[in-house]
Structures are given as structure tokens and as C-alpha cells.
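Slide 14.
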Amino acid sequence: MGSSHSRTACQAKGLLERLSLRLSLAPVICGSMLFWATAPAIAGHSSECPVSEDIVIAAEDSFFPYSGFYQGELRGFAVDLINAAFNAEQCSVILNVMPYNRCVRKVAQGRQLACFTTTGSDENRRNYIFHQTPLFFERVLVYSHPENTAEFDPDFFKNKTFSVVRGYTYTDAFDADETIAKVEVDSDLQTLALTAKGRTDYAIVYEKVAAFHISNSQYLVSPAPIARHELARLGLFVSFSKKMPERSKAVAAVLDRGLNAIHKDGTYGEIEANWDEWLQHGLKEGRPAPHWESGQNAK
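Slide 15: predicted structure.
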């Protein structure tokens, strides 16, 4: 990148350092939660499960409301879908919680069977095995400071700055374009905070993730960024390791059958409706995040 991009990165680093000071307790708290949350989160188990041994999958820790910590517990729309889908096939699933970069790296190395949530980009499909039915579809939006009312022009990719999460994939074209000035940070909260403070021109964020952070972290994300452009609508998946192809393909097939089952019996729709309602109303009202459990509907 040119010198102007470097200056932008330095300014962003300064803001991140200030944000880190304001969140100085988070590493200690998250450290204990991570240790606690790696204990098994098990859906109903039965000898009828079509694959042997417990299914162990890595879940990312900071992609809430899809997968992440909320009020000290692992919660998320994707977490509920995975538990419900495997439960529909009479299988247990153990979720190991970790940062996304570590999650996909361990899968690539064959040290974890699978990781969620991952886009079905060309690069990811070269590196991992995928199931057929996406966990869900979501829009990836381009957010700007509210005072920036300009209609988004694709030419902005040539001369504006964009905050993104390190290690995330967005679209093949965006990811591969090294001429785009990308400021990489560790979380979607930081991407939005940088844009809210005017340190980057735009933030690239999944729609419901942005909605959560804008509502839940007003002290950091203020003024609230505004969605200006849809970058893509993507399917999100569990990525499986190519280092253990037989096991990966077998478990991916079980997941596909389970997802199809919960779509047909209405469980998927109930889980989705619960999360949509919570994001619109329950979050502001201080209600606990939804949590699907075997034998009952999402609550």
C-alpha cells in the first residue's frame, strides 16, 4: 500500500489502543470464559447416530449473534442450528470455542475436524470440505459514518479505506484485490468503531453482527454507522478438514441431513424467528439471548 494507506493504518492503530484501554478487563474475563466454554456442549446422543465417536467442532468466539460469548456463555444462531441439526440425526456434538483465525488454522492442519462459520469462497473451497446446505444466508454490508451521505460508488474501492476483520473472507474479488486499502482489526466491533470515529471511511460487516454491536455497544460505536451498500449475500457453512477426508465427508453428510430435517419440521424457522425477535426487541429489553436445547423449542 502507499504512504496514505500507511498513515491510515497508524491512525487506526492509535484508536485501537485507546479502545483496548477502555476494554482492559476483557482479556481476563474472556480468558476464563474460554477455558470454561471448551467443556462439552452436547445435544441429544443415541446409538442411532450414523457416525461413530462424538463429533467435535470448533466454534468461533466473537461472531455474535451467530457464534460467540454473550453474558459469559456461548450463544448464537449458528450454535443453535448446529445443535438442532445434529440432534435431529441422534448425534452428540461437542463445541470447542476459539478465535476464528485459530479455528480455521487448526482445521487446515487437521487438528480440528471442523470450524464454523465460514463462507463458501473459492479460496475456502480449495482449503476445506463443505456440506451442501448452508447454515444460513446473510448480507455483507458497507457501513459509513452517518455524516457521509454520499451514494456508494464502486470506484470508492480505489480511493477509500475499509475496516475489516483479520482472517475473514468477504467476496473473492474484494479479498483478492490488494489495491483496496484495508485496515485489519480483530473484531467487527472494532471495524464499526473505527468508522464511527472517522478513522476509516467504511466498515465491512455482516448485517446482524452490525445490528448487535450498534445496539449493544453505543459507548464505542457512536454515532451509529449507516449501511450504504450491499457487498454480497453469502451462504455461511461449517468447514471440514481435508486432512481427514473420510470423517469430514461422513459428518458433513450427517449435518446436511440434519439441516434438511429441521427445515422440514419447522425447528429451523422457530430458531430463526426467536433470534430475529430477540435482536429487534429482547436485546434492548435486557432479555437473555435465545438458547435451543434438545427436547424443547428455542427460548
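Speaker note: DSSP finds eleven helices and twelve strands in the chain.
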